[in-house]
Specification:
By secondary structure, the protein is of the alpha/beta class. It folds into three domains: 119 residues, Rossmann fold, CATH 3.40.50; 154 residues, GAF domain (Beta-Lactamase, 2-Layer Sandwich); 161 residues, Reverse transcriptase/Diguanylate cyclase domain (Alpha-Beta Plaits), CATH 3.30.70.270. Helices cover 44% and strands 19% of the residues. The protein has a six-stranded antiparallel sheet, with helices on both faces. The chain has a five-stranded parallel sheet with strand order 2-1-3-4-5, with helices on both faces. A hairpin with a 6-residue loop joins β6 and β7. The chain is elongated.
């Protein structure tokens, strides 16, 4: 059996408007695989090198010289380039050759002649393909690493990695997922085919290849999804449902940060695309190793910044957040909830009769009561929640992804924990009680984060005025 020879690859660069009509069709009829630059220049080359470059331009002037100068580096220089000039210019071919062209076709362009020149140039190319491919990949790798290093935040590093690897390997689908082996759900935070995607929740039970990569800590490579045993159960389900998956190859590269599983990098090809190759997979793995180190460094830097900010944003008496920290957190939750159509609640808690404690036992006892209350609140809230001191005898609690019934349940649980807590300076009958006000977003009266505080304060006043329950909400007069 004769091995199939892949088609020779031709990269089209330069001014697309100047390309002779029918150029792409003429080259495709010659059996060539055509690649086009998205931005008209060679700033982001594909990982698989072309065999020849065709640069189109109106005339041999400065823009053409800049386009040819962009083909720098040892890997680029090993590839022949033919310049096509769209406008008649007797001196154009001479200038284009001086600029670095290997051959020139001037207007009026004869496509048959151009195809013959391409074929002749490729026949004369004696550079070893494997050597040129190695040089090319090194060039692309350095280019991508330079852009990754310039990214200042973790999300920018991830988005750049997904975009550049997808472009370099000419993939239709590429994404980055945050997940761990112990959780059922993961979060997709960057998608090549949908650049605006953020925090897309996915059920990992539907993706056996991702679960396997997270479980073993090793890359899962499936060249042909239609026959791989890992997808046997899924294929049976697809058959029962009468659906098909537009996937041919899948690769999942696990990501570890600081020695712990953090997520996975996904590469996929469609049925009509060429299958993923081991060479492409190794290219992605090498890039991901470097990207992981960049992410670790950024996480360390961000963690240090958070600790420094936390030290400045913590109330010294209660250990809870300050008013400035609360304002920032509410703004963040408001923007997040508005962007992703989520719900969150803001609770204000007022300590009843704190002045009475100060008058009976002294200010030091009142301060200790507030300090212990802060510790109870911090201990009992969920990890994503935020507790802040709001005033002299008030606290605020931010509950992400929590509706009004959930907020009321949280208030009841906090009250129960306070009732059970032993305050060193107080008898059982003197333990503090709380009035509460709660507002939940989305709310028809809320157009900005500052509206939440006004509604919560009004709800707290209603709660304090009650004799039973003592929880006011922004959409009721009494609760």
């Amino acid at each position: 059996m004769t091995d199939l020879v892949p088609p020779r690859r031709i990269l089209l660069l330069g001014d697309a408007v100047s390309r002779p009509e029918g150029l792409e069709r003429a080259l495709a009829r010659g059996g060539y695989h055509i690649i086009e630059s998205d931005n008209g220049e060679a700033s982001h080359p594909p990982a698989a090198p072309p065999d020849l470059i065709v640069v189109t331009a109106p005339r041999a002037d400065a823009p053409l010289e800049q386009a040819l100068a962009a083909l720098k580096g040892e890997a680029w220089q090993a590839i022949p380039r033919i310049v096509v000039l769209a406008q008649p210019d007797p001196e154009g071919p001479t200038r284009a050759l001086a600029m670095g062209a290997d051959d020139v076709v001037a207007a009026p362009v004869n496509l048959t002649e151009l195809s013959a020149r391409v074929a002749a140039r490729l026949r004369r190319t004696s550079i070893n393909g494997a050597e040129r491919s190695t040089l090319w990949r090194q060039e692309v790798m350095l280019d991508i690493l330079e852009e990754l290093s310039a990214a200042l935040k973790s999300d920018a590093i991830v988005e750049t990695l997904v975009r550049r690897v997808g472009m370099a390997l000419e993939l239709a689908r590429c994404s980055f997922l945050l997940a761990s082996p112990w959780e059922r759900y993961g979060r997709v935070i960057a998608v090549l085919e949908r650049p605006g995607t953020r925090d897309l929740r996915v059920d990992l039970y539907r993706y056996p290849e991702i679960r396997e990569a997270l479980r073993t800590g090793k890359t899962v490579f499936i060249p042909d999804l239609a026959s791989h045993p890992l997808f046997e159960d899924i294929r049976r389900l697809w058959n029962e449902l009468g659906v098909t998956a537009d996937l041919r190859s899948v690769a999942v590269i696990p990501v570890n940060l600081h020695g712990k599983p953090a997520g996975a990098f996904l590469l996929r090809t469609r049925n009509e695309d060429p299958a993923l190759t081991p060479d492409q997979l190794r290219f992605a793995e090498r890039l991901l190793q470097v990207a992981s180190r960049l992410l670790e460094n950024e996480e360390q830097r961000a963690g240090q910044a958070r600790r420094q900010a936390s030290a400045l944003a913590t109330d010294l008496l209660t250990g809870c957040g300050t008013l400035d920290a609360l304002d920032r957190r509410v703004r963040e939750e408001f923007e997040r909830a508005r962007r992703y159509a989520l719900t969150f609640s803001l609770i204000l808690l007022d300590v009843d009769s704190l002045r009475r404690y100060n008058e009976r036992f002294g200010n030091s006892v009142g301060d200790r009561v507030l300090s212990e209350l802060g510790k109870v609140l911090l201990r009992e809230v969920r990890a994503p929640d935020f507790v802040s001191r709001y005033g002299g005898d008030e606290f605020a609690v931010v509950l992400p992804e929590t509706d009004l019934p959930g907020a009321r349940a949280s208030i009841g649980r906090l009250r129960q924990m306070i009732e059970q807590h032993e305050f060193a300076d107080l008898a059982v009958e003197d333990r503090p009680t709380l009035a509460a006000g709660v507002v939940t977003f989305p709310h028809p009266a809320v157009t900005g984060s500052s509206d939440l505080f006004a509604l919560a304060e009004a709800a707290l006043l209603r709660g304090k005025a009650q004799t039973d329950g003592r929880v006011g909400s922004a959409d009721t007069v009494a609760s």
